[in-house]
Specification:
The complex is a heterodimer of chains A (about 325) and B (about 300).
Chain A: H1 2-17, H2 21-29, H3 34-44, H4 46-71, E1 74-75, E2 83-84, H5 88-95, H6 97-128, H7 135-143, H8 150-165, H9 176-204, H10 208-216, H11 221-232, H12 234-250, H13 253-258, E3 264-267, E4 270-273, H14 278-287, H15 294-325
Antiparallel strand pairs in A: 1-2, 3-4
Chain B: H1 2-13, H2 15-55, H3 59-64, H4 79-85, H5 92-124, H6 127-139, H7 144-157, H8 166-188, H9 192-199, H10 204-215, H11 217-233, H12 236-241, H13 250-259, H14 266-286, H15 288-301
Helix pairs in contact in B: 2-14, 4-14, 5-6, 5-8, 5-11, 6-8, 8-11, 9-10, 11-15
The chains are: A mainly alpha (about 325), B mainly alpha (about 300).
Chain lengths: ~325, ~300
């Protein structure tokens, strides 16, 4: 005990010395500064509180990220044999037809799914907030597909689509149009429930008196929806729009399990997977048979990251702007 | 507009009558809405029902009679389930166990470690804390493909390729959202309670576990739910990090069956899928309230 006490004393003495002039002022004028009573002892335990997360974060994110950026400028098969080659990988990535195709394909897919998911999810949320009997049960059902993983979903739907399409002598792997719309149906089935939850939260927060005022003023239902409800749920709409956009861009599991990029079409002597999205394209470049293309794959990954991060930052800027306006 | 005037005119004449007429109208509308929603719900459940039907169907009929009930010679009984257990040269029960170990251990680690770190970050708020916090928020917008190759190599060198060690990778890659949510919540609770404890001589560890921990519980449930949903269904990270010949999770196992499409026993695969969906649906029905709350909280912050 005594030992412990002296230890603490010396510790607090040494900390007193490191106090800045302002800290002293604060201590003199503000009496015992409240936040310091907590901060000081807490700081001594930094290793326990911050250590595990920081270490894991460096292993799981910081180091791979830095290494990834560096490797995008290198030629490598393993990590140890990397040699610096400058922007060659990026040039190769942009001249890669399969990459450019998956880029436009992903953009088209993300926008289509964005519109369909949000319109349907909003409609369902609106219907469920009308005090219909059994809305809880409906909500439960609509949200359920969210808990099933992308791989399993892909497998389930490929069975269903093949069950339907086999009657017409085709399969989802043979026709890229079916592949596209099949994936849209799958993703709607999965994500409408998720967006619906966010919209319901937004709709429940619409002030009751505003709706009542609109009713008293003789507004039709349609007018109330456009002039009162939608402006009030704008924050939810923003969140859902960006969420479905980033989800669309990052989609991988469902794409892999449903079509895996098939069918393959030869174009100018290059095999191009017709329903391959960006994430899957990067994956197959990394782990395909051509290990020399790993540098290109890493460059593609960096481009992909910049794209997704730009959407994320746009969302942040947009929500910030909204907050200021309110 | 004409309609409006008309209703106003009616309104002037006999409000009580109009009110009752409107009520009847609304009731009709609600019934119609309920019918529409019921139909959509049934369509929504159909894919799961299709899995249920086909799990009991003989393999040869799955592709030709996908939507028929498994009657007469289509009926396979539980033979699909028996076959499924050892399907793909890997015992299904092992992949279930691996998935369970990874999900539970990772979620426990993430909730405990990130909540401690978030409390430290929010209360100490030094320069280094701000840097780490910023990096965590930043990591939320980084897609997995960006780090997948280097991360799997790093994990390999550090021997993080077993179900018992992969939670460290999850803690690192999943820290972002958890830290973000916890810091947001800690900042909203008054510091005075913790300070009072500190003045009374309560050390940081005791303060954390007896005072902060209980207050954080709602956020912990939200974070826990989000992490469970992510990790249980995650395919690519464990596929690249784990030693795939020894350890498979459920999504990896199912993707392996799919890999050899055509030659695969579809009936048995459906039995496996059914077995992997049922626990998820039970979990969902039991914890529905928390799951929906957690999703709403996570979405608003993310």
């Amino acid at each position: 005990m005594a030992d412990n006490n002296t230890n603490q004393k010396t510790a607090s003495q040494s900390e007193k010395k490191s106090e800045t002039f302002f800290d002293k002022l604060r201590r003199i004028f503000g009496g015992q500064n409240a936040s310091y009573t907590l901060k000081r002892p807490l700081r001594k335990w930094w290793l326990l509180f911050m250590g595990p997360v920081t270490a894991a974060f460096i292993i799981g994110f910081v180091w791979p990220f830095i290494q990834g950026i560096y490797l995008s400028f290198c030629n490598f098969r393993l990590v140890s044999d990397a040699e610096f080659i400058g922007f060659d990988n990026y040039a190769k990535a942009f001249s890669d037809q399969s990459f450019m195709r998956s880029f436009w394909y992903t953009g088209l897919f993300a926008l289509t799914s964005l519109v369909i998911i949000n319109v349907l999810a909003f409609a369902v949320a609106l219907a469920l907030t009308q005090n219909v009997r059994g809305s809880n049960l409906f909500r439960t059902v609509f949200f359920m597909p969210n808990l099933i993983g992308g791989i399993v979903l892909g497998y389930i739907w490929s069975m269903i689509f093949d069950g339907i399409l086999s009657n017409f002598g085709t399969s989802i792997l043979q026709n890229s149009t079916w592949g596209f719309w099949g994936l849209i149906i799958l993703i709607c089935w999965q994500q409408i429930g998720y967006m619906m939850i966010i919209y319901i939260a937004g709709l429940n927060a619409v002030p009751e008196d505003m709706l009542e005022a609109a009713k008293i003023d003789g507004a039709t239902r349609w007018q109330t929806l456009w002039k009162v409800t939608i402006p009030n749920v704008m924050p939810s709409i923003t969140i859902c729009t960006f969420l479905s956009l980033t989800n669309g861009f990052k989609l991988f599991d469902q794409n892999l399990a449903l079509t895996g990029g098939q069918p393959i079409v030869m174009q100018d002597g290059v095999a191009i997977k017709q329903t391959e999205m960006l994430a899957l394209n990067i994956y197959s470049t990394f782990y395909g048979t051509n290990t020399a293309a790993r540098g290109t794959a890493q460059a593609k990954a960096v481009i992909f990251f910049i794209l997704v991060a730009a959407i994320g930052l746009a969302q942040l800027a947009y929500t910030r702007k909204k907050e200021v306006q309110q | 507009m004409k309609d409006n005037k008309a209703t106003k005119a009616v309104n002037n004449i006999d409000p009580a009558l109009l009110e009752s007429a409107k009520k009847v109208d609304r009731k009709k509308n609600k019934t119609a809405l309920m019918v529409v929603l019921s139909v959509i719900s049934i369509v929504y459940v159909l894919p799961v029902l299709a899995v249920l039907i086909n799990a009991f169907k003989n393999n040869t009929y799955v592709k030709t009679d996908t939507f028929a009930l498994p009657l007469n010679d289509m009926w396979a009984g539980f033979s699909n389930f028996e076959k499924g257990m050892t399907f793909g040269n890997y015992p299904f029960i092992d992949s279930v166990l691996n998935s369970l170990i990874i999900t539970l251990l990772s979620t426990f680690l993430i909730v405990l470690c990130t909540s401690m770190a978030a409390w430290y970050i929010a209360r100490v708020n030094s320069f280094l804390c701000k840097v780490i916090y910023f990096l965590c928020v930043f990591s939320m917008v980084v897609p997995f493909q960006m780090v997948m190759f280097t991360l799997s190599k790093t994990a390999d060198t550090l021997k993080l390729n077993t179900p018992w060690t992969i939670p460290i990778v999850y803690l690192g890659f999943g820290a972002g959202l958890a830290i973000f949510m916890f810091v947001g919540f800690v900042k909203s609770i008054p510091i005075e309670i913790e300070e009072a404890a500190a003045i009374d001589g309560c050390g940081p560890i005791r303060t954390y576990f007896t005072i902060v921990f209980p207050m954080l519980r709602p956020t912990m449930i939200s974070v826990g739910i989000l992490e469970i949903m992510w990790i249980w269904n995650d395919y690519l990270l464990p596929y690249l990090v784990l030693d795939i010949n020894k350890y498979r999770t459920i999504p990896i196992h199912i993707q392996y069956l799919k890999g050899s499409y055509g030659a695969v026993d579809l009936g048995a695969s459906m039995a496996l899928i059914l077995m992997s969906i049922i626990p998820v649906i039970v979990f969902y029905l039991v914890c529905q309230k928390y799951i929906i709350k957690g999703v709403a909280a996570g979405a608003v912050k993310g």
